[in-house]
Automatic annotation (TrEMBL):
<feature type="binding site">
    <location>
        <begin position="122"/>
        <end position="123"/>
    </location>
    <ligand>
        <name>S-adenosyl-L-methionine</name>
    </ligand>
</feature>
<keyword id="KW-0489">Methyltransferase</keyword>
<dbReference type="InterPro" id="IPR029063">
    <property type="entry name" value="SAM-dependent_MTases_sf"/>
</dbReference>
<feature type="region of interest" description="Disordered">
    <location>
        <begin position="173"/>
        <end position="192"/>
    </location>
</feature>
<comment type="similarity">
    <text>Belongs to the methyltransferase superfamily. RNA methyltransferase RsmG family.</text>
</comment>
<keyword id="KW-0963">Cytoplasm</keyword>
<dbReference type="GO" id="GO:0005829">
    <property type="term" value="C:cytosol"/>
</dbReference>
<dbReference type="InterPro" id="IPR003682">
    <property type="entry name" value="rRNA_ssu_MeTfrase_G"/>
</dbReference>
<keyword id="KW-0698">rRNA processing</keyword>
<keyword id="KW-0949">S-adenosyl-L-methionine</keyword>
<comment type="function">
    <text>Specifically methylates the N7 position of guanine in position 527 of 16S rRNA.</text>
</comment>
<feature type="binding site">
    <location>
        <position position="136"/>
    </location>
    <ligand>
        <name>S-adenosyl-L-methionine</name>
    </ligand>
</feature>
<keyword id="KW-0808">Transferase</keyword>
<dbReference type="Pfam" id="PF02527">
    <property type="entry name" value="GidB"/>
</dbReference>
<feature type="binding site">
    <location>
        <position position="78"/>
    </location>
    <ligand>
        <name>S-adenosyl-L-methionine</name>
    </ligand>
</feature>
<feature type="binding site">
    <location>
        <position position="73"/>
    </location>
    <ligand>
        <name>S-adenosyl-L-methionine</name>
    </ligand>
</feature>
<dbReference type="GO" id="GO:0070043">
    <property type="term" value="F:rRNA (guanine-N7-)-methyltransferase activity"/>
</dbReference>
Length: 210
């Protein structure tokens, strides 16, 4: 049975104002999907579970006091737009697909979200430091760490949504990086894992060494 907005609110405890913002976001996603392939078409049958809850599950895992984050390879804006709706004050959404960025801009406007949308590849983004780096279905873990490191402060955390290959990815990442790793079962995918990484450091000298 598809997850309803009311069931989502009951599960996450979001306010009515936050739910209203997410409803506007979801309505726009469905509308734009008719013209632009923003997400996999079959996921719209359960959009509140597959995209809204899948993104929202990261919010309670963010470091306490998180004020800023980067969403790498954000696609149609998930999880970044949802986390902005839930209260993260400074969200940077990085996506090279211009049409998906156009959707994100309109979604941020309609839902009243504070999001900076970077229509470019993450490798070309100027270096900055944020409290958290998030990503969903963008790249394998070793590549994600390469993308993320220029934006990490010593206290930054990474939250990555991963699937069945998580063990292989962690093994590969361990060849080039040291990190503190925490795992949380996905609330939307029985085979999924949310990785929370902290104290991330390259094992060899890195061009973006802090």
């Amino acid at each position: 049975m598809p997850l309803t907005p009311e069931a989502f609110a009951a599960e996450t405890g979001v306010s009515r104002e936050t739910l209203a913002r997410l409803e506007r976001l979801t309505e726009l996603l469905v509308k734009w999907q008719r013209a632009i392939n923003l997400v996999a078409a079959n996921t719209l049958q359960d959009v509140w579970r597959r995209h809204i809850l899948d993104s929202a599950q990261l919010y309670p895992l963010l470091p306490p006091g998180t004020r800023s984050l980067i969403d790498i390879g954000s696609g149609a804006g998930f999880p970044g737009l949802v986390l902005a709706a839930m209260g993260v004050g400074e969200v940077h959404s990085v996506e090279s697909d211009q049409r998906k960025c156009a959707f994100q801009r309109e979604a941020a406007r309609v839902a009243g979200l504070s999001v900076t949308i970077h229509a470019q590849r993450v490798e070309t983004l100027p270096k900055m430091q944020v409290d958290a780096i998030v990503s969903r279905a963008c790249a394998d873990l070793p590549q994600l760490l390469e993308y993320s490191f220029p934006f990490m402060a010593l206290s930054s955390h990474c939250l990555f949504l991963k699937g069945q290959q998580v063990e292989r990815e962690l093994t590969e990442a361990g060849k080039g990086w040291k990190m503190q790793t925490e795992r949380f079962p996905s609330r939307t995918d029985p085979t999924g894992t949310v990785l929370r990484l902290s104290h991330v450091e390259p094992l060899r000298p890195h061009r973006d060494e802090r």
